[in-house]
Every structure is written in structure tokens, then in C-alpha cells.
Design goal:
With about 290 residues, the protein is of the alpha+beta class. It contains 7 helices and 16 strands. Strands 7, 8, 9, 10, 11, 12, 13, 14 and 15 form a 9-stranded mixed sheet that branches. A 7-stranded antiparallel sheet has the order 2-1-6-5-3-4-16. N-(5'-phosphopyridoxyl)-D-alanine (PDD) binds next to helix 5 and strand 13.
Length: about 290
């Protein structure tokens, strides 16, 4: 984790992050009644901007929060944050909560959403394939609407922590005997040279990097299938690829202490990664403040 940049956005204006304040009655604080996005910025250009904005709208609609901004306003807000913080390589965090009410009531009483955004400096995206990571499996202890990008992430936090304590970078989650996703990533499995991805059900987040991975696989000429992945298929995979906006695309080469396939970066990952490097600019958008 790198430190946050100085300038943030809160409720209609840019301000020093150190001066940003919200009410303790904000429902984001009391109930995690909030949604968020993490958007990579490479060389000042936002990566996969439109899919992130579309998913933000989808999450807001699922929580029945009226979107506080239209697409142009979101773009300018993000563009301004990038510019105020000097451009370059950043991760932009954007959160919308339902806002503060006069008291604490489970059923919303009507409030103005709180919009908060800040940026963190991040290393430039890798041009060479990053080393494989270790992963563990864990029971998916999350709720039944993991398709909503909610800030209610306690289960994800405990699962990621469990992975870290096991010396791994990610926990791959199993529910009813099949793979859902990672604690903060989507997960893909190569079997018989075919890329397999769990279907978009309420059990998984519709990942922006997931869609990109599937598109890159198509461009590489790989066959891909969206289907339920039983635990045995995960454990017998030739390759496992985890994908997220923050972490990019990584191969998991160790699972529960055992090598995945032959335990090195596999051919499907390497081809897809090379295609990603060559096409990042195509998926990046200049945003005017
Ligand atoms: N996490 N699934 C979960 C549970 C996630 O938290 C994430 C991303 C993904 C991948 O989605 P995307 O490719 O759009 O980032 C899948 C973000 C980065 C986070 O919480 O920091």
C-alpha cells in the first residue's frame, strides 16, 4: 500500500485530504451503506474508465441510491483529482455513501449522498510479466450479493488477512464446492489449454479486469468458457490467473502450498500478459478536469 496523495474530493470540492471530514452519522460509517470503485490511472490516463463508471451506476442502483453525478461530471471529478495530484500513475478510490441522516435508522429516511475520492501513487504498470503469487483456498464467508461493489468488506478483509498470515497474496474462495472469486480479485483457471471463468452471478463481482482478460484471451485466439468451476478443477488447474484493477493480472503459481501445474508462469498467462502490455493505451482515457 502506498501513501495517499495530498488532494482529495469531498462533496463538491477538492481539498487537502488531511482536512476532509464527514459526519459520524454518515450511513457509510454507521452501516457501510456505500459503494466504491478503484480506478487505475496510467500516465495520467484512466484505465477502463467506462466499465468502472458503468459498474458504479449499477452498484448505486442496487442500493437504491440516486446517482449524484452524471457521466460527464464523474469524468471531470476524476480528471480534476488526477490533475491536482500531478498525474502519472495513480489508483483513484471513489466512494459514494447514502449520506448522513438525523439519527440511526436501518431503513433510509432520505439523505444527500456523500461523495469522497482520493488518489494514491502506484508503481507504473509492469511491462514484463510479474512473478507468480502464492494463493490459498478459503470458504467464501461473504454475503449473497457479492455482485454489488459495496464497502461492506469485513469478510474480504478477514480472508485477505488469512492469506497474508499463510504467506500468500490472495485467498481463492469456495462456495458450495465451486470457485467464486478472490478476496479482492476475479479468478480464472486454465484447464486443457482453455480459459475458464466463473459466471456472473450474485456470488461474484462483475470485474472490469475480468472482462478485459476475456477480451485479450479472444484476441490471442484462446478458447474461453464461462462456467462453474468445481474445487477439483481449481486444484488440478494448469494455470490460475487472478485479476483486479489494483493488482493487474497475476498468475497464481502456488495453491495451498502446492505448485499450480508445473509451478511456473504458464503459456496462456504469458500470451495474455504480452497482449495486455501492447494494448493498455487502447483502454486508457484522457480525462479533462
Ligand atoms: N477489488 N472481486 C472482488 C471481491 C474485488 O474486490 C475486486 C477488485 C475484483 C476485481 O474487480 P476489478 O477488476 O474491476 O478491479 C473482483 C478492488 C481493486 C479493491 O477492493 O481494491
Amino acid at each position: 500500500m502506498t501513501g495517499p496523495c495530498d488532494t482529495a474530493w469531498l462533496d463538491g470540492r477538492y481539498l487537502p485530504l488531511a482536512e476532509a471530514r464527514i459526519s459520524p452519522l454518515d450511513r457509510g460509517f454507521l452501516f457501510a451503506d456505500a459503494v466504491y470503485e478503484v480506478l487505475p490511472v496510467y500516465g495520467g490516463r484512466v484505465f477502463l474508465l467506462e466499465p468502472h463508471l458503468a459498474r458504479l451506476e449499477r452498484s448505486l442502483a442496487a442500493l437504491r441510491i440516486a446517482s449524484p453525478h452524471d457521466a460527464g461530471q464523474w469524468r471531470r471529478l476524476i480528471g480534476g483529482l488526477v490533475t491536482h495530484n500531478g498525474g502519472g500513475d495513480l489508483l483513484v478510490y471513489l466512494q459514494v455513501s447514502r449520506g448522513a441522516e438525523a439519527g440511526r435508522s436501518h431503513v433510509p429516511q432520505g439523505s444527500t449522498p456523500t461523495v469522497f475520492a482520493f488518489a494514491s501513487r502506484t508503481p507504473p504498470p509492469p511491462t514484463a510479466p510479474p512473478p507468480g503469487i502464492a494463493a490459498i483456498t478459503a470458504a467464501d464467508t461473504r454475503w449473497a450479493r457479492c455482485d454489488i461493489k459495496s464497502t461492506a468488506l469485513l469478510a474480504n478483509i478477514l480472508l485477505k488477512w488469512q492469506a497474508e498470515e499463510a504467506g500468500a497474496a490472495e485467498a481463492l474462495l469456495l462456495r458450495d464446492g465451486h470457485l467464486t472469486e478472490g478476496s479482492s480479485s476475479s479468478v480464472h483457471v486454465v484447464t486443457g489449454g482453455v480459459l475458464h471463468s466463473p459466471p456472473l452471478t450474485p456470488e461474484v463481482l462483475p470485474g472490469t479486469t475480468r472482462e478485459l482478460l476475456l477480451e485479450l484471451a479472444r484476441r490471442c485466439g484462446f478458447e474461453s468458457r464461462v462456467c462453474t468451476i468445481p474445487e477439483a478443477q481449481l486444484r488440478g488447474a494448469e494455470e490460475i490467473i487472478v485479476a483486479s484493477a489494483g493488482g493487474g493480472m497475476r498468475a497464481a503459481t502456488v495453491l495451498d502450498g502446492q505448485p499450480v501445474g508445473v509451478g511456473v508462469l504458464g503459456p496462456v498467462f504469458l500470451r495474455i500478459f504480452a497482449t495486455l502490455v501492447g494494448s493498455r493505451a487502447e483502454f486508457s482515457t484522457e480525462v479533462e478536469p
